[in-house]
Amino acid sequence: MAEKRVDQATGTETVGHEWDGIEELDTPMPRWWLWTLYATIVWGVVYTIAYPAWPMLSDATSGMLGWSSRGQLQQELDAQAQRRAPITQALANTPIEQVSANPQLMQAAVEGGRAAFKVHCVQCHGSGAAGSKGYPNLNDDEWLWGGDLKTIEYTIAHGIRNPDHEATRFSQMPAFGRDGILQAAQIADVTAYVRTLSGAQKPDAAARRGGQLFAENCAVCHGAEGKGDRTVGAPDLTDAIWLYGGDPASITATIANSRYGVMPRWNEKLDPATIRMLAAYVHSLGGGEAMPVDQTAQAAVPADGAKADVHP
Amino acid sequence: MSIPEEPRPALYEKRKAVYPKAVDGPFRRFKWAVMVVALAIYYITPWLRWDRGAYAPDQAVLVDLANRRFYMFAIEIWPHEFYYVAGLLVMAGIGLFLVTSAVGRAWCGYACPQTVWTDLYQHVERFIDGDRNAQVRLAKAPWGPAKIARRLAKWSVWLLIAVATGGAWIFYFADAPTLARDFLAGDAAPVAYATVGVLTLTTFVLGGFMREQVCIYMCPWPRIQTAMLDEKSLIVTYKDWRGEPRSRGIKKADDTHLPTGDCIDCLQCVAVCPTGIDIREGPQIGCITCALCIDACDKVMAQIDRPRGLIDYCTIEDAEREKKGAAPRPLLKTLLRPRTIIYFVVWAGIGIAMLFMLGARDRIGISALQDRNPVYVRLADGTIRNNYTIKIRNMEARPRTVEIGLAGLPGAVLWSEGGTRETARQTVRVAADADSVAKVRIFVAAGTEGEQRTPIHFTVRALDADGGTSSDDAQFERPEATP
């Protein structure tokens, strides 16, 4: 280490280090700078007394101000809930057909539904509501039970094929093969016919035989033209959407063993406002249908209570 | 070399009190003018009005953080145009390079807020306490009623200025008349009071007490400027070749008949210096080149019948020339040299480019974002639907009707939320609110035939007479061809 020396130009002593001829002057700090250092020390001590800081054996000091990050979070959540209260209140009191008339309320409902969907619905319907085999895609324009706001709300509230619930949506397709109603060859014929309905294959002899069987066994629910019936949740067989697959093997399996898709009812778990928001969100995904005219007229009468306004 | 007798220098230095003496002269008057203009700009600007119609604020300069808009007279900046603000900052930087390389630390000496407010505070100080000598006497006097009264008076006026300074700042961020009413009524946002409080405190402390300490110890700018000065930059120079050797008074010089310089060691240059330095020791970090010592010295030179300019703006290069007896270069030649010209050209170039871009920029914009979950939806009739979130930026201060169209996807139809497939057409009309972003969900349906991933373009066209279009790229996706 080089000797400390006094720099000629400034009259200041150097710190004594020297790097390739470069030296550092030992310029004194201003006194007030020292005070700011003491002030930060005082601040630090006061801070650790006022706020949670010092680690103890199993915990930490809680601070004299009683602040905690969880407490702050709760405060913020409460503030948000309070801010949202009028909208939640309005949604709880407004029948869904009147919600759609108020764009602001509708938008709030859609956004609220988007959040609730992520919690309660994605397990089956997927995070984008695109569904999968056996779980309907809610983005498309095909609805088993109907796609207007009110119908969707009812489906969410009461579920589908819920045991022990009177108001649930219910229907049961016979297991034509398993129950011995149709023979394997007949099922193959019906499969061929069903595939011609949507244009998946050309009519042939098997399809013609199947057409006869369809009229006798299937048309009662799916309609003479295979267009389905929403009152019993019978799917339209003429379109491009297949919940359980539209290939011959899948259709054969469906006819032989039937399908029994179950959706839980949500009116026992969620409040009416949340169900309404979910309905609004599902309706907004792109396939939502307009309310039938007579239902809209009926809806003008304010409903009393949360459940009374839900009709099939 | 060792100096053993020298006492060990202290780790910390006691502050040397500075009581700058009042002075008059051309530079002092110029400094007054700069101060008046700078303070006027600062206090008056938020109160200027600028009519932008019914849909935009009428404040000429407004940084509307809540709504993310920046208004400056006829210019309105949206967040996505923030590069204009960055451009302004670049211009400010290069402007400082230009000023510094030409006239040294002129920013420090005249325009820096620290200098302007310190100057204002010192003026108040002289008004209440008297000039330098009276201030020194008062500082040494024991605390008594008179001293307390004077201190209270001074600090009160300082505090008033500080509150006004902090108060003016917040008016740049909200409608000034409304905020002023709310602020006085106690209804303004807490952040407004906090901002005023913090700026009041900093103004009071930095202008009243810290003063030259800010320049010498706290500010990084003097260090940076030191690197930007060169031997052709104007700096305040004590012409030692003319002043030395100093005489203690003109009479003494005459009596001794020894060769003496022009400096009579009257210390006026030190007395007036706001940072308390002795300029005769040469260029130093404490010199903010406010030129008050030039005024002070010129006055003394006039009294002792010597030419002015013993302390003067002078480049290091000219100092060398003058030492050798040569004439200094003309001022214009000093100022106009490649370095300053290049700085100026770059500075002006950025400014002109920004003005040109501001004049030519579109006031309508579109951005399209495809839904990624699900990427596509198969519809009942077998066609494929993709969903998009379209944002229309209507940057005009009036509502407009715009039409969203689609190119690159033959046979496609589009509809917006609320519409239906049945009513879908080739375009969608959207009412875009004034000066805001309209967000629409757009559904696009097209047949299964085509590339799995088709590039498409959304276009937006304003339907009023002024027109204007914009477009954004997106893609339409289909499922893999089914076997």
From TrEMBL, chain A:
Signal peptide: none annotated. Its main location: membrane. It is found in: Cell inner membrane. Pfam families: Cytochrom_C, Cytochrome_CBB3, FixP_N. GO terms for biological process: oxidative phosphorylation; proton transmembrane transport. Heme c 1 binds at C121, C124, H125, M263. PANTHER family: CBB3-TYPE CYTOCHROME C OXIDASE SUBUNIT FIXP. C-type cytochrome. Part of the cbb3-type cytochrome c oxidase complex. This is Cbb3-type cytochrome c oxidase subunit.
Automatic annotation (TrEMBL), chain B:
Keywords: 4Fe-4S, Electron transport, Iron, Iron-sulfur, Membrane, Metal-binding, Transmembrane, Transmembrane helix, Transport. Residues 254-282 form the 4Fe-4S ferredoxin-type domain. The keyword Hydrolase does not apply. Pfam families: Fer4_18, Fer4_5, FixG_C. The chain crosses the membrane at residues 30-48, 82-103, 155-172, 192-210, 341-360. Residues 463-483 are annotated as: Disordered. One of its GO terms (molecular function) is 4 iron, 4 sulfur cluster binding. GO terms for cellular component: plasma membrane. InterPro entries: 4Fe4S_Fe-S-bd, 4Fe4S_Fe_S_CS, Cyt_c_oxidase_cbb3_FixG, Electron_Trans/Redox, FixG_C, Ig-like_fold. This is Cytochrome c oxidase accessory protein FixG.
